[in-house]
Amino acid sequence: MPRRTKIVCTLGPAVDSREKIRELIHAGMNVARLNCSHGNWDTMRRWIGWIRDCCADLTPVAVLADLQGPKFRLGPLAGRTLDLKAGRTVTLGQTEQPDAGIELPISQQEILKAIGVGGRLLLGDGNVELRVTEQDGFRFVAKVVSGGQVKSNQGVTLVGRVFDVSPITEKDCADIEAALDADVDYIALSYVKCAQDIRDLRRIVDEKNPKVKLCAKIETREGFLDLDGILECVDLVMVARGDLGLQMDIEDVPIVQKRMIHRCAEYGKPVITATQMLESMMVNPRPTRAEATDIANAVLDGTDALMLSGETASGAFPVECVKTMARIAEKAEKLFDRSRIESDFKRRIGEAVSHTEAVAHAVAELAALTKPAAIVTNTTSGQTARLVSKFRPRVPILCATYDPHTQAQMAVVWGVEAVHVPAPKTTEEGVRQAVEAFVARKRIKPGDHVIVTAGVPAGQPGNTNMILMHKVDGS
């Protein structure tokens, strides 16, 4: 696998067939995102079935269920879309009747109570801005400051207001139950403001399947400010630039992105960079130069994965988007500078470092010195492979695990290729199985020198304590 950066694709009507799913995987999809804000679980279960079928003879793909969270949205519009011109007025607010004269229906009481004359509302990704000029109860008149096309169920942001509501809604609870029944690999929580939000989700998920890992979507200023606390208890982070750009000044978003990716790297937690990465390819077969640069910069920042949203869910060129992103990422990876990671680690000398992280760092250093064909890890939970990945070695990270969930979950981690093997009885058996599995897949060959890291005794999570310089047997 020459490309090390992973690609997350949002599924939707543009790829609603087994053939399209297979094409996405061939093009480079590593993680399939199910957007719980749209669609239904009958459809999503069908997609998951296609993914599992395709993965039987292709590369593993992780499934991430992305919860809607307490996002305020427009209701259904009379014509599904509405073109708003700058300068015109529009009515919005609560309505029980479709012919009540409300052009932009909003039903959530929290935001209705907060809207007042002079308030600024952003619709969708913020392209459409309204300023409220009149109010009569929960019925408002607003002037269109900047226009554009508005769609049913688009997000609504009240500028300057943060609402003290739980990020886990009643709808989210139903989606969590459905996601766990469908055996997803990750569940992403929207609008995470603090570590307690993740702990609350963890408690719900653990009641049914503690192996499912959690992703924190950082899309509020509060979430960014408590990033360290969140990183202590989460498995994966998403830099959700869409709502970040509505919750803070737009000029702050690039800086926040870089700081988040850097902090995730220090913690050894994988991170996804998301939103508008190839937005122009919703309608065009080629990206803009700025989009290509954006992708390359995220890779050079150290992101583990890049995400496509509407580009693959409803765009005109979903497969081409994945191929384009894969080519840009692969080219940028060749310029990645490991020296910052090394300096960050050396800065921590004197602090308490887990023995697993110490072993992972030693493995990466040995790889730089001896240039093996690959690093082979034998892992239960995936922690060893994630920490080796943290140090961004220039050789493949080949991960063998007997847990199918771990195999799929490695699909979001930079540079890691995972395979499923039987549970070993001894460390020696685990090493042999791992090496044989990757020889069978032609990722290494007899005569190659590899670095193996594993735990003694075998099968105990968090017990990585062995480094072996190994020559692959030619027999």
Main traits of this protein?
single chain; 475 residues; alpha/beta; 8-stranded parallel β-barrel; 6-stranded mixed beta sheet; 21 strands
Your description of this structure?
The protein is α/β, with parallel strands linked by helices and 475 residues long. It is 37% helix and 23% strand. The chain has helices at residues 18-27, 41-55, 109-114, 170-181, 195-206, 221-225, 227-233, 241-247, 253-267, 289-301, 310-313, 318-333, 339-347, 355-370, 383-390, 404-409, 427-440, and strands at residues 6-10, 31-35, 62-66, 81-84, 89-93, 104-105, 120-123, 128-136, 139-146, 148-151, 156-158, 186-189, 213-218, 236-240, 271-274, 305-308, 374-378, 397-401, 416-420, 449-455, 464-471. The strands form 4 sheets. It has an 8-stranded parallel beta barrel with strand order 1-2-3-12-13-14-15-16, surrounded by 8 helices. A 6-stranded mixed β-sheet has the order 6-5-9-8-7-11. Helix 10 (289-301) links the parallel strand 15 (271-274) and strand 16 (305-308). The protein starts with 5 loop residues before the first strand and ends with a strand.
